[in-house]
Amino acid sequence: MKDSEIYPTELYLSPEKDELFQKEPWPKPFVFNEDVVNVFDNMISRSVPLYREVLACAAHWAKAYYQTGTKIIDIGCSTGTFLELIGRFLQQPATLVGIDNSQPMLEKAREKLLPIQQIHQVQLICDSAENCSFENSSVVIINYTLQFLPLQVRQKLLKSIYQGLVPGGLLFLSEKVKSPYPLFQETITRHYEAFKAYNGYAQTEIERKKEALENVLVPLTETEQLQMLKDSGFQQVDSLIKLHNFLSLVALK
Ligand SMILES: Nc1ncnc2c1ncn2[C@@H]1O[C@H](C[S@+](CC[C@H]([NH3+])C(=O)[O-])CC(=O)[O-])[C@@H](O)[C@H]1O
Ligand SMILES: O=C(O)C(=O)Cc1ccccc1
After folding, report:
1. Record-annotated residues binding S-adenosyl-L-methionine (predicted)?
2. What is this structure's pTM?
3. What residue segments make up the domains of the chain, in order of their start?
4. So what's the architecture of 3-252 in CATH?
5. Among 31, 52, 105, 200, which one is most buried in terms of CB atoms within 10 A?
6. Residue 168 CB neighbour total at 10 angstroms
7. Which residue ranges make up the annotated binding site?
8. Mutate-to-test residue for ligand 2 from 38, 42, 47, highest number of ligand atoms within 8 A of CB
9. Residues of each annotated binding site for S-adenosyl-L-methionine
């Protein structure tokens, strides 16, 4: 697939519609259980601004920094959507590793990645990311996952990623963040919720999900996130995409 073909490329998203927060019992506190997994592709593509563009961007950067004979690791790979995309985009066989601590997510990922296994070596690891090794990786992707980890675990994980990356290796990180300015945070939140409503969520669904995510998804400010990356060893860090309270960064070893 040529570089120019990545953008019209659709993601492989399962069609089941997210209606989980329309009626009891919805996942509160929010967990990545079977009910969530069954509608996850629809949920995330309607809930994360520029989700398709972010994954296409991550695929471009992964292709640009991938080093032959090393691994591409997706932490919090969920249903394998990014790994399926990079598997179609890369023009040479690679080792693609997906890490997720939700078994139902990896069962969906296994199914989605079957065609990719014709070309690439695919490894799916069901474990908490902080227990995993990142040795011999040239690209680590962690999109919208760090935000679910306890704060003290995040720093340990980023240090482990930095240590595992080969020289010249790349971290592609996307996260929900918060503004350090309460008035801006309020405006961003209002606009983000309008985005969700535009994507078909009712106000009740939006409020219920927000409550379910409280103390489960804990965003940092962009400055705190950048500092955490610097404290992990990354010296070259740059932001690529930001819309509402969703940010994508790249960091180089
Ligand atoms: N400690 C942990 N260790 C491993 N996995 C975890 C952990 N905690 C949560 N997860 C997993 O992290 C993923 C977060 S979703 C990532 C989207 C994907 N990156 C995408 O680009 O489509 C984003 C969201 O739900 O907003 C889920 O699959 C969890 O099971
Ligand atoms: O931050 C939110 O309000 C979201 O809905 C993001 C999200 C997307 C998919 C699963 C969990 C949270």
Report:
1. 51, 76-78, 100-101, 143
2. 0.97
3. 3-252
4. 3-Layer(aba) Sandwich (3.40)
5. 105
6. 11
7. 51, 76-78, 100-101, 143
8. 47
9. 51, 76-78, 100-101, 143
